[in-house]
Amino acid sequence: KTPFVYILKNQLSSLVIDFIVKNNSRTKTENVHTLMFTQIFNVFTNLRYLSFDPSSVSLQGLSFYVSPSTIISSTLLELHVGIESFNDYLYLLDERFNQLHTLYVNILIIISSPRIVNNKNKISNLRLFSLHSNNTIFEYGQLVVPLLHRMLNLENLNLLIRVNRDKGLIEKCKYVTEVGLYDERPFEHEFFLRIAQSFSSMEKLTVVNRKSQIDKRCIKSINDNQDLSIIKYPHLTKVFLEEAHDDCIEQSLVDTKMCLPNNVFLSAVDRSLERVARNFERGVTRNNCEK
Known about the structure:
Blueprint: H1 3-11, E1 14-17, H2 26-43, E2 49-52, H3 57-60, E3 78-85, H4 86-92, E4 102-109, E5 128-137, H5 140-149, E6 156-163, E7 178-182, H6 189-198, E8 204-209, E9 231-232, E10 238-244, H7 246-253, E11 258-259, E12 265-267, H8 270-277, H9 283-289
């Protein structure tokens, strides 16, 4: 072996691969890319970071139905990848990458399968998990939630998904400290309450939502909705609301809706803050504004 080959095989620790597809021959490229992915870990034995064309999932997402079950790496720490199905994702988590702490996954479709991988082992090393899928998920509670419960020490969770789900969110992700929320539907008071219950250790909250709340127009009470449960985020240190509707800002500032901890940093558009706090003269926002 030449010194160059030795360096590539044993010393290369980071690898980024992107593909350019000039036609829509999906099956052919999909099989080639899957076989290439399986061979990477045989060739590069010291790999710690791998980005394997994570954005092009619609044309060549990895699928492991036809690949050998010999993919394994005890060195890989961070993986960015696009895959075809939820079953393929469970395949990746079948203790093949036992040191993995950061995982970004773009999945074409998340549905149950008769050939579903029966993988229920705990995932203790994963600290950051990002899941992206453009297709609507109809089995969120049956597939995604149990998966998150297996991630015992997760600290950072990013879900960019479309969910067909009326109730519930995620139960007890106690180690997650950073949460980002985005939706095309309004975030109601009850939703923020569920966030507090699901992420008890949350320190940073980012909200991206331009929709006006609906429930607040249906609740009639005296003195700024005092019939609502007051939401508390005891560990919160930073709140980013630059891309949030005035109702989300009001949700955070009105003390009969939310009680912010002391010394919290809140970022929002100046005009929105002035409208909600009425030039900081509105009584029900004074307590939170002074923090």
